[in-house]
């Protein structure tokens, strides 16, 4: 390729590819499956674009050229050619090729056998419960994976239908109450990927975001180990402790302190990047704001308002929560 | 036969048969997987694919036969010519659709 | 053609016809049953709902224009997008297309009205009242908010308490009564009420499209009606059809919904394509290329589109092979569409196109619709669908298909038939402005939206964060949507202005070939003063002066002294005349029935079940009264003798449109029952349930009832055979005996219900059995009541050997009930449901 062509191609490709990037973009793949699906898009959209162009140009040409009279036999010949060639053969061949390709692709993506790592994700209105059966690790709204290792995720739901979807790693799968389905992911590079509930699940469907992070296997092991071999957590001291026990403990679990099941497990809360399943950043200011204004930040969420609690106690509670990291 | 031939519903019979086949195919797959699911690792070479495949083949033969019957019945000049030709076309479309959809039986394991 | 050398003074004839057929104004306009008036009402009401739906769309786009912007609180936003979809689908697209067909079909087919004018009126009122109830919920801010496909458990009582979902389930079901009744009416009218001599293959192509659309409505809507009934029963009475905790399954709802929902897309698209196939030849000055090909394509589309429903469920976790069946069918449906596109293209190629405003919309249609079809083929590919399903990509695709396949052709059609409605032509300039604004605005909004979806934006989110690459495409979409709104406003302005300022259209302004242009513009209520014979597809091209001849009364059925509303009844295939179909005049009954139905709907909404039961009784009485006003009682005061050289009136034969109407209605009813049966097998076999799957029913009682029903049906069959042979001895007594037999059979059925040990609130399978038994109970009771009425009518002499068509209608119901009861018996008692479970 000549340098001019190369540069032109690059000049065209860069903005296009830049436009594809995004933490949740299906066109910015980070796994073999997602890459295959992105390629599928580029191939299909190119062919479709050509077909659309062909049909539109033919149509407009027929409309605007000088009309002409065809003798009967010729008209019949044109008629037969266009109907059989364009109407019958063109779509038949295209969809046959597509079906063949599709069946093969689908077969290639079947999660056959068992993956070395298995975990469970349950959808709740409006947050994700993530369980690592090895070592009984429970977390929420974050999914940490090892790079290069196939992971089987069993998805289900505790209330309504949600859908598990991390576009940069692969396609989506519904989370249906009463059923368990399996989806296999394998990140092939380190990084942070964004997942989001894809099936409309009620008031806060927009705020059901999953932080997905792929770590090198060694670091993943460290991450998991830190949670399986965790030191015992001491309850919050004083008024904050009473507040937690009387209000939070009913719904939230903190290993060794409380056993609530309705809301997210808080045992490793401080290690999570966001609060409210992606509503605000989990920093000192964010945490305090969430405790006071979560109903304004995420209207309709399941946690009752606690704006009657005085600032000092809330601050103390926040300070204790900030320590909940392995 | 002549009553069938001249009945207006004859013209859509081919696609009615296709619909019944389609429902039976889907139901058969569901039932088979509920009763005795073949292992996904076996791929498409399972008893269930074979049974559904034979059923599909028979349906195609039936539809092709009916298409031929309708086409031959459409004698030139008969008042039903249009409807009979249409019926032949519909049977043929039904057969083609059956083949096209049936082809998937060759490529995928039934219950995974 | 011209049979009469001396005909009476046309002006006097017109006046006489007007007296018999005319649609009164003032408050008596509420009694009108005429298809022209009803069609116009459908179109205007549909346009109003379109504007409401469009307004909701503007709210959605305003909210999504920039990240983090909250114009509407989340719950209200969810109501708005749910209602946008609901209004556009149920209150705009389907009724609009049906309304246009109701208006056009008789005129195109050379008839004076549809076969069941009172049913058209009932359909309209149900649509209007249902639409008002639905939109009222929005004003009260308690509108449905679970998305327009109402997935349960989100829409169930546990997760959406309050009336929101009930509005949808009851309101939409109410509106669907309208859709199904129009469907039945159009099927029968197209097959039975045409011009003399018009064989099936000589019908205008539009009639084929509408025939298939109407047939699809008849089969496609009942699954959703059943689903809505079951979900409402779950919400109101706690029957757990969809509750996985009690043996139900949320996926059953999805199956029932999409069993309706996918054909729905084609129900909307086919009439649009029919408009294209009608207009394009006119503007090319030559017949449509490949009429047979197109008919075959339309039939194929109609059937195959029922095999696509699971392609909305590719991500629910169904085995790959099953997905592949539906994926293949979804791709397959592209082929008949391809055939049509190329038939249109060839028509253009071989014709001499004229580039006028309707043609502009057709060009827009082609580009937008083909683009939507192509993304549709992509979505049919299972793995690709896993990525873009439920994202803005699908939103974009769906709008390309629906706006492209329905709205653009509809606008082409409105511009084309505008002179027909008003007698005037719209403005070329405003029309072009309107088109270009809509076209550019639409593509700006939705082309970019594909990209938004690929970048990962799910649909139905009320807001989104910045930094995801979604900001600029959303802003562009929002701007585009306002451009499109400006275009719609321009078209609306054009439509309003043309009524006053448009040029008079003259006769047949577009040089069309079809008979609707042979009426006056606007048309007289009886369409044609005299009914011409038709034996080719292009009557106005063959005989350009046909309109004048018709208006001079030179053709058939110009007699009006008898005071009846007459039109030809023809044989379905050949178009040979077999009777004079006598049509009913204006009446209050449809309005009263619809008002009572609205009352029923409201009382169910407000959970006043006693009132609902009472109203149901009253509704039954009104409908029975309606059925009583048939045959010789159809038009009181009219002279019922026909001239010697004329065929008999339809109710004096063995066959009539009513027989076909009953048959088609039973097809719809059967689709409902089969959906229920599907639910039974689905819950029994596919749903993962713990615990026993056997259901204790009163098997002996059920068997007895089924056997008795068999005897009754055979008895009635014998009676009809003897009637046909001319023997009517003691007809009334026989019918009375049959009534008693029916009563006994219904009692046995009640016994079965009594003896069954059902726990319908605890187990979904028991609930299904309960519904199955109730279904048969209601149907058999109805058959018994109708038989009793027939006995009475036989006594009064309205039913006899010469007039045996009514008991034949009732016999169809008996036969249907027989089939249903035996199938239920086999399914409930004999089918070993234990098979599927335990795995």
TrEMBL record, chain A:
Residues 235-325 form the Cytochrome c domain. InterPro entries: CcO_II (IPR045187), CcO_II-like_C (IPR002429), Copper_CuA (IPR001505), Cupredoxin (IPR008972), CuRO_CcO_Caa3_II (IPR034236), Cyt_c-like_dom (IPR009056), Cyt_c-like_dom_sf (IPR036909), Cyt_c_oxidase_su2 (IPR014222). The chain crosses the membrane at residues 42-61, 82-103. It is a multi-pass membrane protein. Keywords: Copper, Electron transport, Heme, Iron, Membrane, Metal-binding, Respiratory chain, Transmembrane, Transmembrane helix, Transport. Gene3D superfamilies: Cupredoxins - blue copper proteins (2.60.40.420). The keyword Metal-binding applies. GO terms for biological process: ATP synthesis coupled electron transport. GO terms for molecular function: copper ion binding; cytochrome-c oxidase activity; heme binding; oxidoreductase activity. Residues 114-226 form the Cytochrome oxidase subunit II copper A binding domain. It catalyses: 4 Fe(II)-[cytochrome c] + O2 + 8 H(+)(in) = 4 Fe(III)-[cytochrome c] + 2 H2O + 4 H(+)(out). It is found in: Membrane. GO terms for cellular component: membrane. PROSITE patterns: COX2 (PS00078), COX2_CUA (PS50857), CYTC (PS51007). CDD domains: CuRO_CcO_Caa3_II (cd04213). Subunits I and II form the functional core of the enzyme complex. Electrons originating in cytochrome c are transferred via heme a and Cu(A) to the binuclear center formed by heme a3 and Cu(B). Belongs to the cytochrome c oxidase subunit 2 family. NCBIfam families: CoxB (TIGR02866). This is Cytochrome aa3 subunit 2.
Automatic annotation (TrEMBL), chain B:
This is Uncharacterized protein.
Automatic annotation (TrEMBL), chain C:
Pathway: Energy metabolism; oxidative phosphorylation. One of its GO terms (biological process) is electron transport coupled proton transport. It is an enzyme of class 7 (translocase). The chain crosses the membrane at residues 42-60, 80-105, 125-147, 167-193, 205-231, 265-284, 291-310, 322-347, 359-382, 394-418, 430-452, 472-497, 588-605, 611-628, 701-720, 732-755, 767-792, 813-835. Its EC number is 7.1.1.9. PROSITE patterns: COX1, COX1_CUB, COX3. GO terms for molecular function: cytochrome-c oxidase activity; heme binding; metal ion binding. The keyword Zinc does not apply. It catalyses: 4 Fe(II)-[cytochrome c] + O2 + 8 H(+)(in) = 4 Fe(III)-[cytochrome c] + 2 H2O + 4 H(+)(out). Residues 27-535 form the Cytochrome oxidase subunit I profile domain. SUPFAM superfamilies: Cytochrome c oxidase subunit I-like (SSF81442), Cytochrome c oxidase subunit III-like (SSF81452). GO terms for cellular component: plasma membrane. It is found in: Cell membrane. This is cytochrome-c oxidase. It comes from Pseudomonas flexibilis. The lineage of its organism: Bacteria, Pseudomonadati, Pseudomonadota, Gammaproteobacteria, Pseudomonadales.
């Amino acid at each position: 390729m000549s340098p001019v062509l190369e540069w032109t191609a690059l000049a065209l490709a860069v903005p296009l590819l830049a436009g594809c990037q995004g933490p949740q973009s299906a066109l910015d793949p980070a796994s073999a499956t997602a890459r295959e699906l992105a390629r599928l898009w580029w191939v299909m959209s190119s062919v479709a674009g050509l077909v659309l162009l062909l049909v539109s140009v033919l149509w407009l040409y027929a409309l605007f050229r000088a009309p002409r009279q065809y003798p009967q036999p010729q008209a019949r010949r044109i008629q037969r050619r266009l109907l059989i060639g364009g109407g019958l053969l063109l779509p038949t061949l295209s969809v046959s090729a597509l079906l063949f390709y599709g069946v093969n692709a689908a077969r290639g993506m079947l999660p056959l056998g068992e993956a070395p790592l298995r975990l469970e994700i349950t959808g709740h209105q409006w947050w994700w419960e993530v369980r690592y059966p090895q070592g009984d690790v429970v977390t929420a709204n974050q999914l940490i994976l090892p790079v290069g290792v196939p992971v089987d995720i069993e998805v289900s739901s505790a209330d309504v239908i949600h859908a598990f979807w991390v576009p940069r790693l692969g396609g989506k799968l519904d989370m249906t109450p009463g059923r368990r389905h399996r989806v296999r992911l394998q990140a092939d590079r380190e990084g942070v990927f964004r997942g989001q509930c894809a099936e409309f699940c009620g008031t806060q469907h927009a705020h059901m975001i999953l932080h997905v992070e792929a770590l090198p296997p060694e670091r993943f092991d460290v991450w998991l180990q830190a949670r399986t071999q965790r030191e015992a957590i001491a309850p919050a001291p004083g008024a904050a402790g009473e507040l937690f026990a009387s209000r939070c403990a009913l719904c939230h679990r903190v290993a060794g302190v409380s056993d609530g099941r309705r809301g997210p497990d808080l045992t490793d809360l401080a290690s999570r990047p966001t609060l409210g399943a992606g509503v605000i950043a989990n920093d000192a200011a964010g945490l305090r704001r969430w405790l006071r204004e979560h109903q304004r930040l995420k209207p309709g969420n399941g946690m009752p308002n606690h704006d009657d609690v005085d600032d000092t106690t809330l601050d103390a509670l926040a300070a204790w929560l900030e320590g909940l990291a392995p | 036969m002549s009553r069938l031939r001249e009945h207006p519903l004859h013209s859509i019979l081919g696609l009615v048969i296709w619909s019944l086949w389609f429902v039976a195919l889907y139901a058969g797959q569901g039932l088979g997987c509920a009763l005795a699911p073949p292992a996904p690792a076996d791929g498409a070479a399972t008893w269930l694919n074979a049974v559904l495949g034979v059923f599909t083949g028979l349906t195609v033969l039936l539809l092709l036969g009916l298409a031929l019957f309708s086409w031959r019945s459409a004698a030139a000049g008969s008042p039903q010519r249009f409807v009979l030709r249409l019926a032949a076309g519909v049977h043929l479309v039904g057969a083609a659709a059956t083949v096209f959809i049936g082809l998937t039986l060759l490529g995928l394991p039934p219950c995974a | 053609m011209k049979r009469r050398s001396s005909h009476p003074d046309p002006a006097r004839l017109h006046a006489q016809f007007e007296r018999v057929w005319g649609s009164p104004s003032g408050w008596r306009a509420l009694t009108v049953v005429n298809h022209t008036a009803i069609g116009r009402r459908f179109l205007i009401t549909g346009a109003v709902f379109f504007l409401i739906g469009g307004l909701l769309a503007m709210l959605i786009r305003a909210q999504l224009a920039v990240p983090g912007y909250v114009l509407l609180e989340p719950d209200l936003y969810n109501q708005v997008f749910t209602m946008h979809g609901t209004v556009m689908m149920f209150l705009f697209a389907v009724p609009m297309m049906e309304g246009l067909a109701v208006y056009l079909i008789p005129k195109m087919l050379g008839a004076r009205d549809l076969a069941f004018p009172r049913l058209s009126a009932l359909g309209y009122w149900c649509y209007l009242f249902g639409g008002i109830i639905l939109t009222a919920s929005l004003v009260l801010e308690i509108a449905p908010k679970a998305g327009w496909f109402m997935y349960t458990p989100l829409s169930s009582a546990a997760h959406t308490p309050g009336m929101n979902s009930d509005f949808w389930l009851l309101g939409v079901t109410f509106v669907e009564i309208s859709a199904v009744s129009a469907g039945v009416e159009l099927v029968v009218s197209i097959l039975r009420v045409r011009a003399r001599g018009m064989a099936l293959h000589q019908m205008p192509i539009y009639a084929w499209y509408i025939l298939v659309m109407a047939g699809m409505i008849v089969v496609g809507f009942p699954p959703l009606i059943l689903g809505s009934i079951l979900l409402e029963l779950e919400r109101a009475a706690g029957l757990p059809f969809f509750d996985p905790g009690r043996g139900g399954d949320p996926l059953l709802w999805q199956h029932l919904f999409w069993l309706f929902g996918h054909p729905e897309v084609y129900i909307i698209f086919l009439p649009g394509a029919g408009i294209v196939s009608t207009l394009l030849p006119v503007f090319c000055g030559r017949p449509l290329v490949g009429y047979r090909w197109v008919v075959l394509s339309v039939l194929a589309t109609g059937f195959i589109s029922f095999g696509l429903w699971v392609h909305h469920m590719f991500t629910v976790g169904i085995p790959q092979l099953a997905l592949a069946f539906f994926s293949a069918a979804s791709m397959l449906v592209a082929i008949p569409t391809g055939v049509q596109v190329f038939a249109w293209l060839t028509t253009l190629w071989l014709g001499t196109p004229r580039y006028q405003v309707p043609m502009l919309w057709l060009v827009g249609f082609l580009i937008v619709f083909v683009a939507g079809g192509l993304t549709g083929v992509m979505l049919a590919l299972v793995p690709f669908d896993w990525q873009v399903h439920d994202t803005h990509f699908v939103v974009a695709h769906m709008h390309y298909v629906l706006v492209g396949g329905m709205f653009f052709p509809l606008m082409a059609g409105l511009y084309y038939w505008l002179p027909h409605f008003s007698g005037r032509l719209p403005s070329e300039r405003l029309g072009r402005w309107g088109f270009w604004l809509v076209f550019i605005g639409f593509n700006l909004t939705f082309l970019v939206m594909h990209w938004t979806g690929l970048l990962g934006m799910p649909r139905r989110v009320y807001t989104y964060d910045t930094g995801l690459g979604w900001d600029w495409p959303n802003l562009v979409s929002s701007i585009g949507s306002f451009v499109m709104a400006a275009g719609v406003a321009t078209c609306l302005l054009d439509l309003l202005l043309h009524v006053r300022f448009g040029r008079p259209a003259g006769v047949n302004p577009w040089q069309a070939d079809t008979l609707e242009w042979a009426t006056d513009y606007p048309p007289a209520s009886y369409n044609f003063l005299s009914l011409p014979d038709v034996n080719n597809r292009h009557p106005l091209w063959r005989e350009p002066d046909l309109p004048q001849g018709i208006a001079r009364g030179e053709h058939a059925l110009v007699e009006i002294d008898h005071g009846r509303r007459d039109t030809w009844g023809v044989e379905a295939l050949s178009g040979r005349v077999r009777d004079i179909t006598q049509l009913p005049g204006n009446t209050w009954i449809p309005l009263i029935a619809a008002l009572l139905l609205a009352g029923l709907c409201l009382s169910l909404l407000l959970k006043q079940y006693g009132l609902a039961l009472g109203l149901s009784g009253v509704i039954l009485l009104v409908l029975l009264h309606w059925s009583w006003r048939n045959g010789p009682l159809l038009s009181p005061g009219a002279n019922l003798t026909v001239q010697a050289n004329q065929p008999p009136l339809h109710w004096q034969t063995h066959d009539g449109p009513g027989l076909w109407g009953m048959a088609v209605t039973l097809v719809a009813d059967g689709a409902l029952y089969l959906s229920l049966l599907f639910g039974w097998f689905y819950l029994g076999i596919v749903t993962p349930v713990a615990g026993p799957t056997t259901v204790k029913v009163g098997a002996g009682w059920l068997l007895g009832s089924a056997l008795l029903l068999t005897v009754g049906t055979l008895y009635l069959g014998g009676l009809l055979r003897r009637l046909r042979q001319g023997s009517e001895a003691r007809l009334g007594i026989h019918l009375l005996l049959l009534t008693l037999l029916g009563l006994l059979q219904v009692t046995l059925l009640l016994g079965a219900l009594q003896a069954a040990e059902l726990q319908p609130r605890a187990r979904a399978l028991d609930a299904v059995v309960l519904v199955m038994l109730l279904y048969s109970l209601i149907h058999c009771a109805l058959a018994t009541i109708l038989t009793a009425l027939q006995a009475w009518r036989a006594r009064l002499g309205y039913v006899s050997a010469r007039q045996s068509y009514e008991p034949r209608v009732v016999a169809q119901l008996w036969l249907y009930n027989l089939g249903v009861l035996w199938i239920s018996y086999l399914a409930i008692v004999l089918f070993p449901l234990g098979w599927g479970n335990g795995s």
